[in-house]
Write a structure and sequence with these properties.
TIM Barrel; 3-stranded mixed beta sheet; 8-stranded parallel beta barrel; 38% helix; 15 helices; alpha/beta; 428 residues
């Protein structure tokens, strides 16, 4: 009997969470024990038919002293991937995963050049790698580092946000150019948030309009689109952006081949005005990933992929979210969108994201395709793992996934998504 494959499939990606837990001396590669079990983890992906993956390159582990590069651990997973024909999208800067010696992080005056140097060292060592995410999620990373003070270096002003955004954009521009010079076959998957904002009252209209424009800011800076006519040009200038730096980015745009869009239940936000903006706890209306993605597709006219999605909850919760997101992606494909892949992030449970990675507790986040055991030495397959395998191998579509309902926590928070979701049985 011939196994049926569906024509509307696209690559499904694996991934491993890696964010540095600043000040703890470790990262989520360590707390999940991927550092110890990387070959076993990669073999697990292979067995599921996942040859495409996003893979973090931990700068903070490799360049512990300026200019001294230690790739001994990195050689292990990279050789495994090369030997087995896996196709990584290298991710050398996942959020704040820079070395301890880089004082002030992205605000260090030499950050763009120091980062370019590191990425080129990696690329020269592993010349078979062809795809790069040069700076993962620059918009939320910059916001968390420089606007709300959550992440190091804990800045908290619009001026700091603008400084951080320009540093990230310059780093992306010079590093993509250097990688292209090194090998013209290199490709760039620009991963950032996929957002939509809606005002719930007139007082919040101004803020909401700004947030809707800001969601495109990093793409526009990297692509050299921020000229004097840009809707955020005056905002940038008023908050310290040198006109010469904006002109430099126009003259030296970064390279983007595919836009990776990261979409979660919190990616759509509604706003009220109470002594400043305040996000509503629960959405009244949701557009869904396909509709929000079209905003980016129409603006940039580039191929897209779902760069990240997950939901923290039971296996049934995750299957319900997987079904919804798979349906949304298949909808885009049916419309003729050049859709390059689906990445559930991460493949194994993560840790410490319930604290936004501000401290290291080792507490497991139940959000992976495979579950971690309490000691994090085992990865346990579930019904979700089997469905993701079948999707990756093109054996099923969203219609073949079971119609689980959400547990009460998510059922209450996702009511706005109900009209968009495939019909399913409610959880009692």
């Amino acid at each position: 009997m011939t196994t049926m494959r569906f024509s509307r499939t696209f690559p499904h990606f694996g991934a491993f969470e890696s964010t540095k837990l600043h000040g703890s001396g470790t990262d989520i590669l360590g707390t999940t024990r991927h550092i110890d079990f990387c070959e076993r983890d990669l073999g697990m992906l292979l067995e599921a038919g996942l040859k495409d993956l996003r893979y973090s390159i931990p700068w903070h582990r490799i360049e512990r002293q300026p200019g001294a590069f230690d790739f001994r651990w990195m050689d292990v997973p990279m050789r495994f991937m090369e030997r087995n024909g896996m196709r990584p999208v290298a991710d050398p800067l996942h959020h704040v995963s820079f070395p301890d010696w880089l004082e002030d992080g992205f605000f260090h005056p030499l950050f763009p050049k120091l980062y370019e140097r590191f990425v080129l060292e990696f690329a020269r060592r592993y010349p078979w790698v062809r795809r790069f995410t040069v700076f993962n999620e620059p918009l939320p990373t910059t916001i968390l580092c420089s606007l709300n003070g959550t992440w190091y270096p804990h800045r908290s002003s619009e001026e700091d946000f603008v400084t951080g955004a320009l540093a990230a954009a310059r780093a992306i521009a010079i590093t993509t150019a250097a990688l292209k010079r090194l090998d013209p076959a290199n490709e760039f998957v620009h991963i950032d948030t996929c957002e939509s904002h809606r005002s719930l009252e007139k007082k919040a209209d101004t803020w909401t309009a700004f947030a809707m424009d800001r969601r495109f800011l990093m793409h526009d800076l990297v692509l050299g689109r921020v000229s004097s006519g840009h809707v955020l040009y005056e905002f940038l200038i008023e908050n310290g952006a040198p006109a010469a730096e904006l002109a430099w980015l126009q003259d030296n745009p970064g390279l983007i081949d595919v836009i990776g869009l990261d979409y979660y239940p919190h990616s759509e936000m509604e706003w009220r005005w109470r002594r400043g903006e305040r996000m509503a706890r629960k959405l009244k209306e949701a557009r869904g990933f396909a509709a929000v993605a079209r905003d980016y597709i129409e603006r940039y006219q580039l191929p897209v992929m779902l760069g990240e999605t997950n939901i923290r909850g039971s296996v049934a919760d995750r299957i319900a979210w997987l079904k919804f997101m798979q349906q949304q992606c298949e909808e885009l494909v049916l419309e003729g969108v050049d859709f390059r892949g689906f990445c559930w992030y991460p493949s194994i449970d993560s840790t410490d994201w319930q604290y936004l990675c501000t401290k290291m507790t080792g507490a497991i986040d139940p959000q992976g395709i495979w579950s971690l055991c309490p000691k994090r030495t085992e990865r346990r397959a579930t019904e979700l793992s089997e469905f993701y395998r079948q999707l990756a191998q093109g054996l099923i579509t969203w219609r073949d996934l079971p119609s689980h309902g959400f547990d009460p926590f998510w059922a209450e928070r996702l009511t706005a998504f109900e009209p968009l979701m495939p019909s399913r049985r409610k959880v009692a």
